[in-house]
Amino acid sequence: MCAEASKDRLMSDSMPTVVLASRNVKKSGEIRALLAPYHIELKSVGEFDGVPDVIEDGDTFAANAAKKATQTGTHLGMWAIGEDSGLKVDALKGAPGVYSARYSGVNATDESNNEKLIAELDGVPAEKRGAGYVCHVAVSDPEGNVRLSVEAACRGRITTESRGSNGFGYDPYFEIREYHRTFGELSPLVKQHLSHRARAFERLLPQLVAVLSGATG
After folding, report:
1. How many domains does one find in the chain?
2. What are the Cα distances from residue 134, in Å, to 142, 186, 192, 196, 212?
3. Cα–Cα separations (whole angstroms), residue 97 to 49, 87, 94, 133
4. b/e map of 168-206 (b: 16 or more CB within 10 Å)?
5. CB–CB of 211/140 below 8 Å?
6. Distance between CA 207 and CA 213 in Å, rounded?
7. CA-wise closest residue to 124 among 151, 160, 148, 153
8. Each residue of 71-87: pLDDT tens digit?
9. CATH number at residue 69
């Protein structure tokens, strides 16, 4: 056990700390849990003073993720992860898409966004309420170069009523058909394996470990 603990400590010490370009506490917690098995320490941008907010004006998830990563990375002189994700609803021609976080306006909240979504889908039958969560992750080095970029999605459908209190965003309305449960009802452990974010990081992590290991080599 002592030898294994020493190995784990060595791996942790050899990896540079990475900052997540998000002040969303729940999102940071999800991503921190995904990185933990790889001994990568993650800090939220909210833990640093004076970091300006990134204006998410890209027309794709990839553009927003890259902008978050590069601006945060260069400002702090650190490796940075930019993550942009959102919900694309078939019956709404892909909306809210990149506007998912501010779907109901500048001062949008999870509650107001969900209210607007359900109102927009009023009268749409269950078989036409298909939707997909999309997550794009970009990794920037301290000089502002995008070193990694991946995207993944998770399909489901939008329910008519909120179910469950786990997760955030549209999770209480996003049902995984195979489980007959919303992300709001599923445990965080299950969501870590099924979600769009989990799938994106599953693709990213082997590459991230290699890049960060090379940065300290």
Report:
1. 1
2. 26, 18, 15, 6, 25
3. 30, 5, 6, 9
4. ebbbbbbbbeeeebbbbbbeeebbbebbbbbbbbeebbe
5. no
6. 10
7. 160
8. 999 999 999 999 999 99
9. 3.90.950.10
Q: What pLDDT is stored for residue 13 in this prediction? A: 53
Host domain of residue 61: 2-216
What residues are labeled active site?
84
**Could you tell me if 83 and 101 are in contact, meaning their C-beta atoms sit under 8 angstroms apart?**
no
Radius of gyration (C-alpha) of the chain in whole angstroms: 18
The DSSP annotation for 79-146 comes to EEEEEEEEEEEGGGTT-BGGGGGGTT-TT--HHHHHHHHHHHTTT--GGG-EEEEEEEEEEE-TTS-E
Q: What's at 155, amino acid-wise?
A: R
Confidence of residue 160 (pLDDT cuts 50, 70, 90): very high
SS3 157: strand
Report cis status (omega within 30 of 0) of the bond before 96: yes
pLDDT (mean) for 62-67: 97
In whole angstroms, give the CA distance from residue 78 to residue 112.
Answer: 35
Q: How many CB atoms lie within 10 A of CB 121?
A: 19
- Asked whether 196 and 167 are in contact (CB, 8 A), the reply is no
